[in-house]
Predict the structure.
Amino acid sequence: MATLSNPWHADAPWVEDALREASFGELRFIPYSSNDVYLARLSHPEHGDGLAVYKPRDGENPLWDFPGGLDRREVAAYDFARLLDWPVVPPTVLRPDAPRGVGSLQLFIEHNPAQHYFELREGDTHDMALVRMAVFDLLVNNADRKGGHVLLDPTGHIWGIDNGLCFHEEQKLRTVIWDYAGTRIPEAWCESIACARDALVSEAAEATPLVAVLDGRERRALVARCEAVLADPVLPEMYPWRCVPWPVV
């Protein structure tokens, strides 16, 4: 299956600025999503044309168990990944000036849709990247980690997309990544988690972007989850309540 190419790449040092500054061109509606989602063609005077995924706030369908503003949680997931220094979420920004109103704008990751989580878990090539994704989802309380939300880019890097259902203060973890239950979290990762927790508690400069998009209850719950993982740095077994999203892909 052919992949859609994107001239912009996640490791480009200018990509965040390009996402914030680029002008919008064609918006192509992406069907079969719970909310309005568009593939946006962008143009930047210095960095040329690129592709991003645009999710307007006004296109969200209300949820009984999640407040609105899923776009800010998309941004918060990226900000938290940056605070951890874990490149697990594609560059994501908030665009108040977008064509269909304020919304999140995330760099489009080149990928083959057939290479989702259930394919990537086969063998052991991507095990550590998938374990790290599971740890990240545990920390952000991801309520919707479907198999199709785990992408492999052309360089072999694993990315997690569709992070809008994160950061609820109540336990909401629903994920397909349970194959690594019982895996001990590496000490270096725990050090990153501890640093992120401390930055959040002290509202350090490096945590400013995340503090700006999460409210006080969400931040306190995030800190508590960090502390719980540090106290018992092992990926949990499946919970006895609903802990898998539907559909799974």
